[in-house]
Amino acid sequence: MADNTNIHPLADVQCKSIGEGTQIWQFAIVLPGANIGRHCNINCHTFIENDVVIGDYVTVKSGVYIWDGIRVEDHVFIGPNVTFTNDHFPRSRQRPEQFRGACLKNNASIGANATILGSVTIGSYALVGAGSVVTRDVPDHALVYGNPARQHGWVDENGIPLRQIDKAKWQSESGKEYRVADGKLNY
Length: 187
Hints:
The structure is a single chain. The chain has strands at about 5, 10-15, 15-20, 25, 30, 35, 40, 45-50, 55, 60, 65, 70, 75-80, 85, 105, 110, 115, 120, 125-130, 135, 140-145, 150-155, 165, 170, 175-180, 185. The protein has one domain (about 5-160): UDP N-Acetylglucosamine Acyltransferase, domain 1, CATH 2.160.10.10. The protein has a nine-stranded mixed sheet, with no helix packed on it. It has a six-stranded parallel sheet with strand order 3-6-9-12-15-18, with no helix packed on it. It is mostly beta strands. The protein is built from no helices and 26 strands.
């Protein structure tokens, strides 16, 4: 664990793999096998299981439980009370081999109270709206919301929705143009 981490005295942090500048607030629980990157902000009332990897500059807001198998890349924002699942066949008597965690790619943002099912990949810069239920993969830069979450547009690198110019052409507020081909946003 780096010297300049800040772990609140009321947190239960058993993990030793925590990067420099990371803050972990009161009533957070981090199990010993977790791996947390640099300059993260792990808010109060959170739980991070053993087989979890969290990248650098990640924010995990209050009330989030991150289960085995979940991978979070750099600069990801996880809003308050986001719910992750990792068991496709939930039963009281679990078998670890059936656990399949989600993957949140660089710069993805997940709104408050969203539910993310196991094995789902949320693409880079994607934005998941508050309260959404994500049941399938989300492309890079996609704006999704609803239950189940459906794509309603695209966002730029700052998470600001793009304006559609024509069928394949989209534009940011600053005038930067993007093209959509084969279900992917290109710039």
